[in-house]
Amino acid sequence: MTLSLYDMTVPTYLQILGGLRGVLAKGLEHAKNTRVDPQTLVEARLTSDMLALDFQIRSVVNHSLGALRDVSKGSYTMPTNGTFDYAGLQRLIVEAETALKGFTPQAVNAQEGKALNFDFGSYKATFTAEDYLLSFALPNFYFHAVTAYGILRMKGVPIGKGDYVGQVRMKFG
User: Fold this and answer.
1) Number of domains in the chain
2) How far apart are the first and last CA of the chain?
3) Does 44 reside within a domain?
4) Residue 41 CA: distances (Å) to CA of 26, 36, 58, 109
5) pLDDT tens column, 115-169
6) Is pLDDT at 173 greater than 60 in this prediction?
7) CA pair distance 145, 165, nearest whole angstrom
8) Is residue 171 domain-resident?
C-alpha cells in the first residue's frame, strides 16, 4: 500500500480538527452549565510556563492549514499573533476545516520534493515538503491539539480520548 503526501496530511488534519471542534463545543457547554466565563478557558494553561488555549488552537491551525500553504509557496510564514475569544477559536477551527477540504490530492502531491525555506529567528533550514510536513508540522500539530485537549480536560470539561480522536477513518464492508 502506498500512501501519498495528501493521504498522510489532509485527512489526518481534518480528523483531529473535527475532534477539536467537538471538544470546543463541549467546553462551551460545560462553561454554560457551570456558569464559568468561557474567556477563562481561552486563557487557561496547563502550567505557568506553557501558553494558553488560544495559542494552542492557533498553532493547530498554523501546523495544518498553514503548513500546507507554506509548502505551496516554498517558505515558512510566521503565524500572526492575535487574540480570540472562545467563539473566535471555534471559528478558526471551522475555517481551517473548510480551507483544508479545498486541497486536492493532486495539488498536495505535486509538492513532493519541493524545497521549503524555514526562517525562524536565528534558526534557518531547508526542508523538502515531505520532511517539513512529516517531521515538523505533524508533530507540532499533534502536540498543540493534545495540549488544547489537556487544558480543557484539566478545567473539568467532560471529554475523553474519543472526543480528541474524532471520527476515525474506516473501510466498511
Assistant:
1) 1
2) 19
3) yes
4) 12, 9, 14, 38
5) 999 998 899 999 999 999 999 999 999 999 999 999 999 999 999 999 999 999 8
6) no
7) 10
8) no
